Amino acid sequence: MFDNLSDKLDKAFHILKGHGKITEVNVADTLKEVRRALLDADVNFKIAKDFTTKVKEKAIGQDVLTTLQPGQLLVKLVKDELTELMGGDVAGINLSGNPSIILMSGLQGSGKTTFSGKLANFLKTKKNKKPLLVACDIYRPAAINQLHVVGDQIGVEVYSEPENKNPVEIAQNAIKHAKANGFNVVIVDTAGRLAVDKEMMDEIARVHKAIEPQETLFVVDAMTGQDAVNTAKAFNDILNFDGVILTKLDGDTRGGAAISIKSVVNKPIKFVGTGEKMEAIDVFYPDRMAERILGMGDVVSLVERAQEQFDEEEARKLQKKIAKNEFGFDDFLTQIQQVKKMGNMKDLVGMIPGASKAMKDVEIEDDAFKHIEAIIHSMTPIERTKPSIIDVKRKARIAKGSGTKVEQVNQLMKQFDQMSKMMKMMQGPGGKNLMKMMGG
Ligand code: GDP
Which of 119, 188, 276 has most ligand 1 atoms within 8 Å of its beta carbon, as the pocket-test mutant? Predict the structure, then answer.
């Protein structure tokens, strides 16, 4: 995602290379490019213009430290401003009610039902909650079934009344059911339409008024660009919702919605959906997203996700190995098995700095690791524990044995090397060294 934008920004910052100080003159071209990149990413015109004006004000006259290129300084200013534009701080979710009531709103196909499941799963597994899912779509029986399928998948009860045509009543009954049966979160999935229409708005407004949710969330498909912003406005006018859920970010190559929504409706983006699987949900961190847009990768998210999947015992063992410089290809293989469990490859690659750009034209499949695994399997045990002994001759043998090319073996060696370095740096408190290296 966002590859186009980060590519263009990259070019824009290049213009500044070789200049010692940021001036009105040399910054103008760069910012023009930045603005164009934002517009291409489907960011609202006025927002893009205000954005570059602000960055310019901050940039001009700043002394560029000798160690810092003006381009780098500008990247930092742009990053900070982007972070601000997308909401600044992380916005939490209000779970103060008993039960806490969460109302989902949005158009049909935005990913409401999928997200309701993801959120229920998230609250159950990460926050130790007992959620109840409620099917309030009275028009499409398939939607009720879909929620039941999702509920079965994650082991969360789904409340529905297939014969009842009154969504207000269904929602109220569901809350009664939750109170009587010890559910502490109620997630109400509602009916959506393909476009904003009065009937839908009236209906959701009625449900909203009747159940008084602590959280009203608006779900929107990130791929719809500026339309997403317009829809958000329409729903916000009626519901004054509390937060935005941006789905399908795994497929979004433009990112304009993420950048524009906060400033148009002034409501924070709280979560993002990054795939069809129930685990493909991330808390929205404006600063990390800004880094990602700028092609710096979202290493922290990646690490967190990895941490969730890794078992502690294994992690401790691994840490020891890294500290002792004993991390080898067998461990790498184990890591790959773990990564595979994390889900969507494309999404993961997008989080690695530089990788999304480098691999932009590569079709990543779920068995993207097939070659890597084959290569490692063709190594001898000693080669796996001491990769430094792998010379040209050995590389040729490994390539032959695994049915790959020497370049592929080289590439893997390089990746391995980078990964080892990265992991060593993560050892510091909070991975600070790594962030430093990345200029954060
Ligand atoms: P609803 O009509 O708003 O309830 O939307 P659904 O939950 O049925 O989602 C519509 C389609 O989008 C389904 O095929 C989902 O699998 C898919 N979908 C939902 N969220 C995501 C996401 O974050 N990424 C991707 N790639 N697909 C998603």
Answer: 276
Sign, CA torsion 199/203/204/209: positive
Is residue 203 within 8 A of residue 167, CB to CB? The reply is: yes
CATH architecture assigned to 100-293: 3-Layer(aba) Sandwich (3.40)
Per the omega criterion (within 30 degrees of 0), is the bond before 286 cis? Answer: no
ipTM of the prediction = 0.99
**118 Cβ closer than 6 Å to some ligand 1 atom:** no
Of the candidate CATH numbers 1.10.260.30, 1.10.8.60, 3.30.43.10, 3.10.20.30, the domain formed by 299-437 belongs to: 1.10.260.30
Token pair 């008024």: residue: 209
Domain ranges of the chain: 3-85, 100-293, 299-437
pLDDT 10s digits, 77-106: 888 888 888 888 888 899 998 999 999 999
Sheet holding 100-106, edge to edge: 158-159, 131-135, 185-189, 100-106, 215-221, 243-247, 269-273, 281-283
What type of residue is 88?
A: G
Task: Read off the pTM.
Answer: 0.68
Q: Which residues belong to the annotated binding site for GTP?
A: 106-113, 189-193, 247-250
In this prediction, residue 238 has a pLDDT band, given cuts at 50, 70 and 90, of very high
Name which residue leads in pLDDT, 328 or 129.
129
Q: What is the pLDDT of residue 158?
A: 98
**Cβ atoms 106, 196 nearer than 8 A:** no
Provide the CATH number for the domain formed by 3-85 in this structure. 1.20.120.140
Ligand 1, atom 12, residue with closest C-alpha? 111
When mean pLDDT is compared across 21-35, 218-232, 298-312, the lowest value belongs to: 298-312
Ligand 1 centre to CA of 123 (Å) is 19
Pocket of ligand 1 contains residue 275 by CB under 6 Å: yes
254 lines ligand 1 (CB under 6 A): no
